[in-house]
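quick one
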Amino acid sequence: MLEARDLHFSYGRGRGTLVLAGVDWQVAPGATTLLLGPNGAGKSTLLKLLSGFERPQRGSVSVAGDASRDTLHREVAWMPQDVQPARGLTVAEQVEYVAWLAGLDRATARRRAGDAIEAVDLVAKRDVRTDRISGGQLRRVGLAQALVRRAPVLLLDEPTAGLDPAQTLNFRSILRDVEAPGGVVVSTHQVNDLEQDVDRVTVLAEGELRFDGPVEEFRGLGGGADDLVTVFADMVGGGSH
Ligand SMILES: Nc1ncnc2c1ncn2[C@@H]1O[C@H](COP(=O)(O)OP(=O)(O)OP(=O)(O)O)[C@@H](O)[C@H]1O
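structure w/ adenosine-5'-triphosphate:
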């Protein structure tokens, strides 16, 4: 199980602002968790720490008690908020390159990249350069990059931000078929992302967890969708949603 203990993190040296102030959290295996928090709450930072991309100043991130960077890289796949096109590479080449960087041999990287591109419904674009595809398609390349390693845990940072409603639905339906036995985490600042199939909700605000439980429990805090926006705003101590 992917677990964070007493995570403290601030950017910059010395007196940088504390972004995470002692977060204890476990990613629920076999479940999809919505990591909900207002802008600047520290969601991206938490996901970077959980993936091993950043190291905490205090506390630890571990899988089954093992906190080594190699283990995190093997066990956790992370899709960053800003997926970058690799100049000059096609969709297939970019996903294959990421697989190769992760240590797969050439033939396996190619095969897995093909599978991942199929899973994200981008077969028609496989030979198009990634700097010439739409923002929504680039998000799906990002998801393919995360899937290609077949890590047990999948962390997705605001995967549908900026997508139109049709693309959002398309992305969610692709996510429904993703296999990640260690758990899937989807970060968002929008309460209406609760519409998607999620099992659990974790609310992060000002570097602390304010809620962590089954989605039904969170929904039960408000009478309807509008209520939940209010519940969330009260929970995070502001009007952001
Ligand atoms: N590279 C950085 N250097 C300095 N400060 C940073 C850096 N990245 C993030 N921060 C700050 O850390 C805080 C948390 O940022 P983070 O991106 O983790 O929040 P978030 O919840 O993902 O926000 P959003 O929903 O807007 O993406 C913010 O105050 C942000 O300004």
